[in-house]
Write a structure and sequence with these properties.
two-stranded antiparallel ribbon; disordered C terminus
Length: 317
């Protein structure tokens, strides 16, 4: 006698053999859907360089006789390919209004450089621009008059080179409270070879100003929160090195004042003064110290081998 269970199994096989489509009709297990990979966001395009700055230079009182270094600096800036015009400080507000109108028509970094009363004028124009919410990229005052106002908030970089014991100049210009830009002040009163009527004629200072202005179009606007103001009494017979501002750095194990100075290419005296330290000061790992820095580090400046803008066809006076 045949087992009924075997008959059921045989019947099932026979049914499948006669109807193969039944097997195909049964749903197959679905494969898990492939998760599409998310493409990384495209890299941000490199920042466009700023347009060439417009430079306004101002002589002091009796400028054609006593501020001739400003004319020489203008010639060097023009030779480097920039628009650099020289004016008398008596035209201060007129030129200030012209600079503001020019910026509104075609925005470009504004650089103001002045000697004696021309330094006072440079800060005054900065104040005029502040009322119009116009930034001033760089202001350099060279032994400005005592009456020179404080540096307003719209100035991104300020440098003062002066003689604190000068009667004709001597403007120890400071920044208004809340200033977040870059600030550096250099008192040259210990240098017996420098006077009010030759301080603006230094070829070494001219070279550094031209280098600094050349770098401006290649870097983006930066009013950095970490910029530390610098104030120096420059040692006698020492060339002025125009640092942009200071930066706080931690001391590492094995660091000395000399090794830090060599690494950052600054003199030891500058680090000592920046931190109000005596000459025999020792450093402790983890200690925070202020080190002067340039507009851009020397390595970055060398890497940005971009030619300066083409020289203008003519100069306005």
């Amino acid at each position: 006698m045949i087992d009924p269970r075997r008959l059921v199994v045989l019947a099932a096989f026979a049914l499948l053999a006669l109807n193969p489509g039944l097997a195909a009709a049964s749903p197959a297990k679905s494969k898990p859907a492939a998760i599409p990979s998310v493409a990384p966001p495209p890299p941000e395009p490199p920042a466009e360089p700023l347009p060439p700055p417009k430079i306004y230079l101002f002589r002091g009182a009796m400028g054609p006789f006593f501020s001739t270094g400003i004319d020489r600096l203008s010639e060097k800036l023009t030779k480097a390919g920039f628009s650099a015009d020289v004016y008398e400080f008596t035209l201060c507000r007129l030129i200030g209004n012209r600079a503001i109108a020019s910026y509104k028509e075609s925005p470009a970094p504004i650089v103001l450089i002045g000697h004696s009363m021309g330094g006072l004028c440079s800060v005054l124009i900065s104040e005029m621009a502040a009322k119009e919410n116009i930034p001033i990229s760089l202001v350099i005052t060279i032994d400005p008059a005592h009456a020179t106002d404080d540096v307003p908030l719209n100035v991104e970089r300020f440098i003062n080179i002066f003689l604190s014991d000068s009667v004709l100049g001597g403007g120890d210009v400071v920044a208004v409270p809340g200033f977040r830009g870059h600030y550096a002040s250099y008192d040259l009163k210990l240098n017996s070879r420098v006077s009010h009527i030759n301080i603006e004629k230094s070829d070494d200072i001219h070279r550094q100003i031209v280098d600094m202005v050349t770098q401006l179009p290649r870097i983006q606007v930066q009013t950095q929160a970490d910029a530390v103001p610098l104030r120096y009494l420059v040692p006698a017979d020492t060339l002025v090195e125009l640092w942009d501002s200071g930066v706080r750095l931690p001391v590492r194990a094995g660091d000395t004042m000399e090794s830090i100075a060599a690494t950052h290419r600054v003199p030891v005296w500058a680090i000592l003064q920046s931190n109000s330290l005596p000459e025999n000061a020792t450093l402790t790992p983890g200690q925070s110290i202020i080190v002067p820095r340039h507009l851009t580090p020397p390595e970055a400046a060398a890497a940005m081998a971009v030619p300066p803008p083409a020289a203008p066809s003519g100069r306005k006076r």
